[in-house]
């Protein structure tokens, strides 16, 4: 329909006035919501009012009306008045009357999609149904949202189900099917479980190869569902029933077709896409209410008594209440007058007033319905009071509660359903039963004084039924108990039972395996006030720390051994105590468990580890109340999560490119972000809505943003590679002040504690201080002058103010400098003595501590008063980009390129007593002790300082008698040391770095050495005289590993060319036999012969391990592929080392973690997860009981098998 001529003329008349005054970006959001403007059109218009009006003249009458309404909503009343008189007259839509299109095809589609069947007694509401269908037809060509909203009990769910019960609609608009998901009030872990269930249902309908492990996070679940809906079920409809919270919609904003029912019509404001609404009036028309009564009593409408109309009016038209009365009249058809009087007396008004919803007649109808139940069934119905809202349960749960056979329970539940006291989801097998929220409210109020005893009954019946152990079947009944048992114990005030359950590794194992770690962590937070009472607080802390730090491991499939994970906890932890007992019991039955002997030197430091993003995290910050953390990075996303549990609260696609910084406003209501896309955005935290976009002032990427510290005069500061600093007043559309002064990109800006000054840090080597009130430069601190010995450029990364505002601290290169603000004098230099660069620093707001982030994965805490390092925070696996103290100084967060945000307790991080070791080491096992030789982070050997190599030492090893130490280096040489005297022989000949070597003979005085290099050669030499015996051209590319068989007859080499070479020994020389190429698709990085010299194990860069026959080169076994998870390799990284047990029955391998294998079966027996990753080598004692390795962050692991 073209725009009416009158409306067109009006637009042309007032066009100049509109172009001058309107802000298009504010209006277009409303027009997009009305469906008259597309996102593409908005992108073209951007902020150009001229373009918007040009487009409007080409649109229809609906666009004119939407534009008029947008002016009203954005308070342009004077402009709206100019358009009012020429508003087009649009006649009410005439909705097409659809015949009943519920064909067998429709029934099949809806049943497969879980759409509820019609109620026992059903009356049609064709006008509302057709209005919903009319909106659904608008989703035929593009994704969008149809919202059905109205009061509780108004029949929204029934209407939504009825609207899709139509052959033509499904065939034309949703040929991919209709999929129903009941939501209700739930938290993030419960939402994850709902989406997991939907994904499983969708995948089950496909071929068996499509079945995958359940998604472990909301992010993964959202992406899995997006893939299924867009690729496997294109043009399908997702129905979300009973939505309470916009966070649910954001988690399901997957650019598909969605119909939702809710009581809050504004929920879809938080998501993008076309949006349509249908309001459901709160009451049925009288004739529809009478129709329900007629159906229940099997009476014609004309034959209903006069009381019928009065009953409908007393029910206020509520379908739920009318159905309750109808069910009563079905059994007692002569009680019309009696039930009318019951409704009119309102004797249950006390209950209704304290209920959540305002229905005058509900309580009377519920009470009357319960009253006619047999006495024994009345008590059983009372037991339903303990159910959570929106939770559906199988009859088997009530079979446990009532101690009856399931069939007997189903008969009783059928009676409740027939009396409209209960609802049934018959799409599930077995059936699931649930109460309407209004019914549950009634029960809770009526039985408020008995709630504790009712919950106690649930717990006692469960304990009696499952006295031999918790259920682990994973069916609906099992899921209910594992999910809600702690809830019932807490409500029953059964504190001792709750302690015993939650402080049990068995429970942790079962719940984490069935429900995932998020539910577990939430339980410890939610029931913390109970668990922390009396002497249980330390134990609660032990379990919370264990789950927070190992949550990401508990998401892996196959599921890890919880006992083995717990053995890495501190010795004083209750978690470790329980694990040790269980491990010793398991070891007595032949199970393999590994204890970490020296872990007391490296305590677990992180309070919480969160993996919020796919990609590097560039910024993370606390909210000012300390309860939330925001993070952003390369994923272009902005995320907010709870600082206690890591539960995600908000997720937004914030920018078109990497998000470089985020910052909370002082009242925590706003979040600012800045990006490589040159834009600055301000978001409403509660609604996750975009409020402002500043995109014209900065000409290059915006590096940093920060709000003032108080709301007294709220400003936002941003700085950019364009060398400028901008100050923004959020009430104005453009920058309040553009600040000049720097000559190179500005990396960072920071307000002083009193907000009077703003510091900026730049690549020009300076820190500048500006007066906020005038935006004038106050002074310049020339950091570049501090580096007098070098001509290289000095990039100042950041600056931070001490709490008193008297000192300012800045970071450049590998140094941190402290300056007096008033005099600009340098007060202190913190020399880190590191080869890495300082990435960021932040001063504690409540103490003299300074946190420093480094590019070598480390975080350090320094005392500014004593200029001493107080703590090392080891744990990150890549560059640490940002650190920040919490407002009270009790916690510290850090974020890294390793995709994690870590939370540390400031007082608990250990002092820097533990030495950070390099991964190249050797170990001497004796009867009484274990001697470890390894270089520290300053390239020193711990046993002695041996100078000689000119480049990095790559490998070191003791001779058999321990008197000689042999080392190889990047300088292409091998050195043989009498380490106690420092005497040294040099072996030369390799052209590239010597990665490793092996000692062949067993004579204490004469040792033959086999060395291999990146030059592709293997060399044989005598160490005691330094004479080379043989050169072998083994590979065309770098040799990555080599091993000699224990019988001395063979050695094997592996290479980057994916080849494995076997060489036979014809004393005293070696001859090349053959190459093994079949199978490995990546670089073959490790090899090891079995002790009987009959088998050869090889490991590659994809984490795969293969076992070969030495005799004929045939493949014997591929070690289990079951360890692959997501994008991880089979071993969490390259397989870097392998060792057989003395009887060749076991194999240990290193990669991202350590694994022990059954050689004959190729199955993994145990896995040890280190704090870091990328393990390089493992040393094994002769009896295969002790294992020593070092991870990539320098932590030493001395592990012992529990016997």
What does this structure look like?
This protein has 1203 residues and is an alpha+beta fold. It folds into 5 domains: 96 residues, Death Domain, Fas (Orthogonal Bundle); 180 residues, P-loop containing nucleotide triphosphate hydrolases (Rossmann fold); 75 residues, Helical domain of apoptotic protease-activating factors (Helicase, Ruva Protein, domain 3, Orthogonal Bundle); 305 residues, YVTN repeat-like/Quinoprotein amine dehydrogenase (Methylamine Dehydrogenase, Chain H, 7 Propeller), CATH 2.130.10; 210 residues, YVTN repeat-like/Quinoprotein amine dehydrogenase (Methylamine Dehydrogenase, Chain H, 7 Propeller), CATH 2.130.10. Helices cover 28% and strands 29% of the residues. The protein is built from 33 helices and 62 strands. It has a 5-stranded parallel sheet with strand order 2-3-4-1-5, sandwiched between helices. A 4-stranded antiparallel sheet has the order 9-62-61-60, with no helix packed on it. The radius of gyration is 36 Å and the shape is globular. The N and C termini lie far apart (83 Å). 45% of the residues are buried. About 3% of the residues have low confidence. GO terms for molecular function: ADP binding; ATP binding. This is Apoptotic protease-activating factor 1.
Walk me through the topology.
Elements: H1 5-13, H2 15-21, H3 24-33, H4 39-45, H5 49-57, H6 61-73, H7 77-84, H8 104-112, H9 126-137, E1 144-150, H10 156-163, H11 167-173, E2 178-184, H12 188-204, H13 218-232, E3 237-243, H14 246-251, E4 257-262, E5 274-280, H15 286-297, H16 307-314, H17 319-331, H18 336-345, H19 349-354, H20 362-371, H21 375-383, E6 393-394, H22 395-402, H23 406-418, E7 423-425, E8 432-434, H24 437-446, H25 451-465, H26 476-491, H27 495-502, H28 505-515, H29 517-526, H30 528-531, H31 537-554, H32 562-566, H33 574-588, E9 594-596, E10 606-610, E11 617-622, E12 628-633, E13 637-642, E14 648-653, E15 659-664, E16 670-675, E17 680-684, E18 689-694, E19 702-707, E20 716-720, E21 725-728, E22 737-739, E23 746-751, E24 757-762, E25 766-771, E26 777-782, E27 796-801, E28 807-812, E29 815-820, E30 826-831, E31 838-843, E32 849-854, E33 859-863, E34 868-873, E35 880-885, E36 891-896, E37 901-905, E38 917-925, E39 930-936, E40 953-958, E41 964-969, E42 974-978, E43 983-987, E44 994-999, E45 1008-1013, E46 1017-1022, E47 1027-1033, ...
Parallel strand pairs: 1-4, 1-5, 2-3, 3-4
Antiparallel strand pairs: 6-8, 7-8, 9-62, 10-37, 11-12, 12-13, 13-14, 15-16, 16-17, 17-18, 19-20, 20-21, 21-22, 23-24, 24-25, 25-26, 27-28, 28-29, 29-30, 31-32, 32-33, 33-34, 35-36, 36-37, 38-39, 40-41, 41-42, 42-43, 44-45, 45-46, 46-47, 48-49, 49-50, 50-51, 52-53, 53-54, 54-55, 56-57, 57-58, 58-59, ...
Helix pairs in contact: 3-6, 6-7, 9-10, 12-13, 15-16, 15-17, 16-18, 17-20, 22-23, 25-26, 28-29, 29-31
